[in-house]
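Box 3.1 A note on notation
Throughout this textbook, protein chains are presented in two layers. The first layer is the amino acid sequence; the second is a token string describing backbone geometry. Keep the layers aligned when reading.
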Amino acid sequence: MFEVAVRVKELASSNLNALVEKASSPAKMLRLLQVEIEEAIITLTRDAALAERRGRHAETSARAHDKAAKDWHDKARLALSKDREDLARGALDERANAEAGGKTMRQAQADAEAEAAALRGAIADLEAKLAETRARLRAEQAAQDAAKPSAGAAVAAAATDKVDALGDRIATLEKRIAFAQASEGGSAKAAALDEELAALQREARLEAELEALKKGLKKK
């Protein structure tokens, strides 16, 4: 994701005048740049839609966890009223699980919404750069109309452009896969550590809540 973000920033901030001056074939360079920007927009649009979908799913899941937490609390009170402390303890443990799940889902929702907003902003920047690139390409092609190559040479150039673009896409995909695989290990370790810490916190909360419920029943 970081590499993609860097490349998108490079594309959006590229200086077309400088690129054209350095290129041996300005029209070819602009065509390749146009293709790359178009591909980036397609990819980011897909990623933004996925992020938005994740956010909606996380919101729905968070609400379900909140409801489950309330249900488990009510069950704990019922169990204690029937002198079933063992059941009450289990219900409170399940409530803690539900609350933790709700918290996780709300954080996931916030992260997904932030990611979607950033992607939509990047798409807008790229669309502006794409319009600029297309306009510059039309100007370059108009300037070269008097010296157009033969039909055969034009076909060969187009074929070369397609091969080059395909190679660029394959390289980009390989980098994304490698980056995703490298990220999985760190996420798993962090999740395992968080799970152990959450278990300790849950046990402490459970004891406190159980005592609070006992006191509440005694008052009645």
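The chain is about 90% helix and 0% strand. The helical segments are 2-12, 16-22, 26-81, 85-143, 151-219.
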